[in-house]
Amino acid sequence: MSPLHLAQLRSPKELHGRTSEELEALCVEMRAALVEKVVNTGGHLGSNLGVIELTVALHHTFDFLRDKLVFDVSHQCYPHKMLTGRYHRFATLRQTDGMSGFACRKESPYDVLTAGHAGTAISFAAGLAAGMVGSGSAKEGDPWAVAFVGDAGFGAGVSFEGLTHAADRKARLLVILNDNEWSIARSVGALARYLSRIRSSRTLQRTYDRLKSLAHSLPIVGSRMEEVGEVIRHVLIPGHVFEELGVNYIGPLDGHDVAGITDALERAKRMEGVTLLHFLTEKGRGFAPAGDDPERAHGISPPDAKVPAPRLVVEAAPEAAPRRSYTKVFGEALCAAAEKDVRIHAITAAMPSGTGLGEFSQRFPQRFHDTGITEQHAVALAGGLATVGKRPVVAIYSTFLQRGYDQVFQEVALQEEDVLFCLDRAGLVGQDGPTHMGLYDMAYLRPFPGMVLASPRDAVDLERLLQKSLASRGPWALRWPRGTTPDEVGSPASLRPQMEIGTAELLRSGHHGAVFALGAMVEIALDAANQLKANTGLEMEVYDARFCKPLDREAILSAATKFGWLATVEEHAAIGGFGSAVAELLADHSSMKTNLVPCRLLRHAVPDRFIDHMNSRAEQLVACRLDASSLADAWAESLQTSNLQVSAP
User: Fold this and answer.
1) Cα distance between residue 52 and residue 309, in whole Å
2) Strand ranges, E, within 538-615
3) Is 375 one of the annotated active-site residues of the chain?
4) pTM of the model
5) Residue from 375, 570, 571, 619 carrying the catalytic annotation
6) How far is 5 from 23, CA to CA, in rounded Å?
7) Dist. CA 334–CA 294, nearest whole Å
8) For this structure, is 390 an active site residue?
9) Closest listed residue to residue 118, CA positions, set 73, 149, 158
10) What is the pLDDT of residues 83-115, one digit of tens each?
11) Taking all residues of the chain, what is their mean pLDDT, rounded to a whole number?
């Protein structure tokens, strides 16, 4: 065989038959390459550095064109990509038109699931296992399904649902538990403590290994060592929970020992039914900054100089002070509110820093609840807290609230509980791609009776909406995008009218049409109106709609009657969001009023397709024609080609 080098590797099949020494040398090369590539492009560094040996051993042992490998979340799939023909694309990682930072079906036949959410791998792999055996039970020679799961994702309830069902079916399934004690934040919960007990049993594991070695040398016993070894291990090693579920358990083992991993995989392939292989790994292994701070090194941003500059929206005016992130504004405002109201509890599903609750968790630990990757439980927990008089605030990324949808319905909305959902990353998310887009929350929350749904345009309104929602009854949801915001957009805080539920705010007068923009799109709509006037002389009224539900019916119907031309602007899917709500209002009103002036409605939203990852949210806004220049062009064309009379001021 020719020497094994990463740059010359054409297929993972070239790992088959290689010695442990060759594989270990490849791991060293891969670790250096990962640091070099990801520091330049940005991405999930720490988790990938910790799974290099596991990934190499898996591809050495299996043929994943015949067998199937499923990554949970897929934060840890970079070594897999390097081995499956994508090493030379790493300079494009997470870049526009480049390689995805997650497992992606469109990229390679080795990626069987476009992934991004936690807890899903075991159920999906169980389905693969059931589908690959044909009729009847799994038998020797059938393909294997392998689920690669982190310890935090393993604690998600759906992981156990999949595990118990697969065990009952005796699926030909291997579950690789990558246990590094971290997800994004440190893993929490009873299962995390149980895994910690197993980790601490290494002394017992070494005792087991010595007894097994001794037993091999004994007459009669030695020939039945696998059976005897299992008896010894059951006595010494605390892995009984999995065995009680009908799952074979092997571990805990060193996840950085290629030879040991390979041996464990080969042993697992000789067992019947579902086998869980528990490997202990070090997040960020071989890269000091990642080892020193696993949470910070989970995902790193690229140097500014390495990011191609997108076509950005036109700035209305230079900022007097640096912009703060919506997340930071929310975190500070919630802490201020909690100082005054002891009923306020904050809930997150394994994302305390990402949702802005880091400071809250330190200042109010008794009122802070990190439930782990269990969005369903987090939402139901909030319903219970509200029932006994607390004021729970559930801070979750928009895309992850989808996982707790049934609990939003039954435990919160149906009970009319006073629960506030704060949805970060609501909108386009740049490099994270389609699995992390928060583009559907208004569509799935808007139908619930009693739900109030609002979006702030700036820091001042985020604070005001937070105060208003905490002082109101019933369920609320506030949404904001990934990004920064000026303190004020449009009217100064001192001149803003008192905030009432379901009222819009007129920010700019006009003579030719009215624009209702929601949330962060208000700033862009104002820029677009300024561009339109400069280019064509057309003047647009611009409203901050502020509420998607309830709508400001009076303002919208008045503008429709006055102009006969409306536009809505939102950072949400075109179907089911704010523009759809306005269209429904106009349609319902037209059915009751025969003399309503016909109104032309332009709905500006994210088009009805999955949006691929790009360098930045700003670039995605351009691609979706939601930047100021695109909006101004669309309004000019619509007004000048419509049959409506455009009157001069």
Assistant:
1) 33
2) 540-544, 547-549, 565-573, 600-606
3) yes
4) 0.79
5) 375
6) 10
7) 26
8) no
9) 73
10) 999 999 999 999 999 899 889 999 999 999 998
11) 86
